[in-house]
Amino acid sequence: MGGVSVRTLDYRLLAGFGLAILGLIFLLRGLHGEPTHSDFRGIWIAGHIWAQGQDAYGPLFVQRGVALFGQSHNPVMWPYPPHAWLLALGSQRFDLSAGLFWWNLMGAALAAIGAWLLGQAFAADQRARLVLAIAVFSFVAFSTASGGAMRMGQTGFIAFFGLGLLAWAMVRRKIAVAAVAISILMLKPQIGLVACGALLVVPDGLAIVAGGAAIALGASLPVLFLTGPATVAAGYLHNLALYRTIPYDLPRSMTGIGNLVAQIAGVDLPAIGMTFVGAAVAALLVRLHRWRNADDPSPVALTASLMMAIVGATVGFAFLHIYDLMIVAPAVALVPMLRGGARWSAIVGLAMLVRPENIAHILLLHGQHGEATVASIGCLTLFTGAVANALMANKPQQSDDAEHVPLLGVQAGFAAG
Question: Could you write out the DSSP letters of every residue in 323-357?
């Protein structure tokens, strides 16, 4: 494999640093968000309710929101699982504007840490790790998803970090850390459940899923003891059912195959059902790739297959808003490891997902539904890449380092530097 000179490599690193700095500036512009129009209000209100020893899943959530923000209060219910109380309780220590600022600053930090973890997982030496981390972080920073997450005070940065932590832990066979990652991903169940499905067909996967469930349950105990397990469970399930009644949570406003079916056939597929379909598909993709590559047991190859399956199946089948699509960023780290149709499908899908509203504008698809449709096509293109990868045998490896990313064909140059 051909190398490059240290000087050429340094120019690339310098350009990468410049891009990362621009991305950071672009990202930090949104730290203040829009407090009066943000979903973060729900996190902030839930924190206040729990701090007073009351039930955030009940009618008090809406009553408190209307009292503070008027009839336009949004969201209209608390949709997160009980172990999210840790995040909510921390946010209520500030006023709303300051809380959103610190929430978004935490999100920016998690974006940087998640990108670093993915670089550590999939590249063989320090320079390659740095370039890979810069590429992932830049994708996140310039994406519509990160801008929307900051404006709305959403949880996409946390989900992205969870995927980065899972990849790092799987490569290093850190079962306990992987379990922590699953508990983080379960803050967004439509992402966490797909990840659990994929993990169930890999070595130690059952232990990781069980550990993640135990951590989430343990973290939920204060809320369960506060108002009673039955009250919490009934309130949480009731709130999830309300999703079918909220216009911006219907399939045509979200992404994935559900959006396209709603747009073309006028049929709204069930969100929970499609999440479980995604989990089953993710498991199938991982199983297929392991069968095609039974002679390559390396943790890097297994983790790359796992991450591609999780990302592809989640965005293909689970219902996500555009601001949730930061979770596709791990695929940026995987592109150099993919080949043929899998690589090109991933590249095209990622290109469509970085700023789908620009493509929608060019195509004269105006409004939220137009952006969601373009993003949905990008999601299915990325999913196609995951399917192609599952059906493809890995390229024969020639050295221990080669199991990591041969980044842009310059792995030898990295090692020589």
Answer: GGGGGGTHHHHHGGG--HHHHHHHHHHHHHHHSHH
What integer pLDDT is reported at residue 398 of this predicted model? 45
Contact 315, 372 (CB under 8 A): no
CB-CB contact of 323 with 152 (8 Å): yes
Phi/psi of residue 71, nearest 5 degrees: -65, -15
Does 399 have pLDDT greater than 50?
Answer: no
Residue whose structure tokens are 């009673």 = 228
Q: What is the pLDDT of residue 204?
A: 94
Share of the chain above pLDDT 70, in %: 87
Give CA–CA dist 185/205, Å, rounded: 15
Confidence of residue 2 (pLDDT cuts 50, 70, 90): very low
Span 352-363, average pLDDT: 89
Q: Which two tokens stand for residue 132?
A: 């890979």
Across the range 196-225, mean pLDDT stands at 96
Task: Collapse the DSSP code of 47 into the 3-class scheme (helix H, G, I; strand E, B; otherwise coil) and give the result.
Answer: helix
The Cα–Cα gap between 155 and 39 comes to: 10
Residue of 258, 278, 267 whose CA lies nearest to 321: 258
Cis peptide before 75 (omega within 30 of 0): yes
Round to whole Å and give the CA distance between 177 and 194.
Answer: 18
> What is the rounded CA–CA span in Å between residue 62 and residue 70?
10
* d(C-alpha 76, C-alpha 63), whole Å: 9
Spatial distance between the Cα atoms of 85 and 68, rounded to a whole number of angstroms? 20
Check residue 35 and report its DSSP letter: G
- Rounded CA gap, 39 and 43, in Å? 7
Residue 287 has pLDDT above 90, yes or no: yes
Q: Can you tell me the distance from the alpha carbon of 304 to that of 281, in angstroms, rounded to the nearest whole number?
A: 16
55: left (phi > 0), else alpha (psi -120 to 50), else beta? beta
- Give the three-state DSSP class for 146: helix
Other residues' Cβ atoms within 10 Å of the Cβ of residue 2: 8
Cβ partners under 8 Å of residue 1, min gap 6: 406, 409, 411, 412
Residue 408 scores a pLDDT above 50: no
Largest CA distance in the chain: 66
Q: Quote the percentage of the chain above a pLDDT of 90.
A: 60
Site of tokens 């073309």: 264
